[in-house]
Design a protein that fits this description.
Structural class: mainly alpha
Distance between the termini: 17 Å
Number of helices: 10
Shape: globular
Oligomer: single chain
Bound molecules: protoporphyrin IX containing FE
Number of domains: 1
Largest sheet: none
Number of strands: 0
Length: 311
């Protein structure tokens, strides 16, 4: 009788870092939502100083005014995300388990969060120029996508995915990468619309959503059509497409309810609109995360079989 193939390395025997990574993602999502609320309510300059707020760690205005609440609690959520990410990177490095790629991704994610904090803080010191605000908006999604990739690397799904010999390496990977990049480009356009209030940027963002839709739909259709037997591909593609359709619908709502004058401090009076637009921003980040997860999964499923792979 031939000897059974060794079981693939399983994260189930070491699920802690995977769970912590999910915690980082949850905390980052909360930070993005609070950041989006900060912008939507025009509260970005609620505190003109940084790293402290009004020279304190817990200023009175952070619980007495809405603008102070959004901006200060955004900073606190960001700090918590950073600390969790640091703990995760240290855990992976000190325990010397997990792949070298996972350790490098954890390090890269930590550096991105640090950079994100500095760009946010420098933006405040400079009275929120467009360049720092838009960079901050795009970097947030890249940070989120990096931790989505890391969660996948640490997941049971990654350990269990065997190479799909019938599918050539190139096409699926390129299509999935293009879908994820199109979503980041869409954020850049949305960020420009939001922070410059340019009608040109706004309508380019609206028009580009159909290009994004086609690119993501083609990537998902290819993955489902050619790799249907790979566990997780169908479910992930279905969630991605549903979220994308929801996002386009929400975009039209955002267009209707936004203040034509853009991000103004008086928007804080209209919390319903601010919340709707902020959900559009958060869903944008979740879409980038899902598209990154699809790319990571397709990448894994189309690798060349190695010695440890079951066939
Ligand atoms: C994990 C780190 C962070 C993440 C993921 C993050 C994310 C975000 C996001 C998504 C927005 C909304 C952008 C938009 O809707 O266009 C935002 C806004 C903002 N963030 Fe952060 N942020 C982080 C850290 C910080 C820090 C440390 C500061 C320090 C001051 C900061 C200051 C701001 C400000 C002032 C805004 C409003 C910008 C504007 O309206 O122009 N952020 N953040
Ligand atoms: C492919 C689908 C879409 C994605 C992924 C997406 C994503 C985003 C993101 C991430 C932002 C904020 C950028 C930032 O962080 O600063 C944004 C802003 C915005 N999006 Fe979209 N969007 C999509 C489609 C649409 C559509 C179809 C519309 C309208 C018909 C729309 C209307 C808006 C508006 C009005 C804003 C700016 C809101 C403001 O001025 O504060 N979006 N979008």
């Amino acid at each position: 009788m031939p000897a059974a193939a060794p079981p693939p390395p399983s994260s189930a025997s070491w699920p802690g870092p995977f769970r912590l990574c999910l915690g980082v993602l949850a905390c980052a999502a909360l930070t993005i939502l609070k950041g989006a609320l900060t912008t939507s309510t025009g509260s970005g300059m609620a505190f003109a100083d940084w790293p402290l707020s009004d020279g304190e760690l817990m200023p009175e205005r952070s619980y007495r005014t809405l603008a102070g609440f959004f901006e200060h609690f955004h900073r606190l959520a960001a700090a918590t995300t950073g600390l969790l990410a640091l703990a995760l990177a240290l855990w992976l490095h000190l325990a010397r388990r997990g792949s070298a790629r996972a350790r490098a991704t954890a390090f890269g994610g930590g550096v991105l969060i640090l950079l994100q904090g500095v760009v946010g803080g420098v933006g405040v010191r400079l009275n929120l120029p467009t360049v720092t605000s838009v960079t901050h908006a795009v970097l947030a999604q890249l940070t989120f996508a990096t931790f989505a990739w890391l969660a996948y690397l640490l997941s049971e799904r990654h350990a269990q995915t065997v190479p799909c010999a019938a599918v050539p390496v190139g096409a699926g990977r390129r299509l999935a990468a293009l879908g994820a990049l199109a979503l980041v480009a869409q954020t850049l356009l949305g960020g420009l619309a939001r922070h410059t209030n340019s009608a040109h940027a706004l309508w380019t963002h609206v028009g580009n959503s159909f290009v994004v839709f086609v690119l993501v739909a083609v990537a998902a259709a290819f993955a489902v059509g050619r790799m249907a037997e790979v566990p997780g591909i169908k479910g992930l593609s279905r969630v991605l497409m549903t979220a994308l359709i929801l996002q386009i619908a929400l975009g039209f709502v955002a267009l209707l309810v936004r203040n034509p004058a853009g991000k103004q401090p008086e928007n804080v009076e209209n919390l319903g609109s601010a919340a709707l637009i902020s959900v559009h921003v958060l869903l944008g980040a979740l879409l980038t995360m899902l598209a990154t997860a699809l790319f990571a999964h397709v990448h894994r499923a189309t690798r060349a079989p190695g010695p440890g792979d079951r066939r």
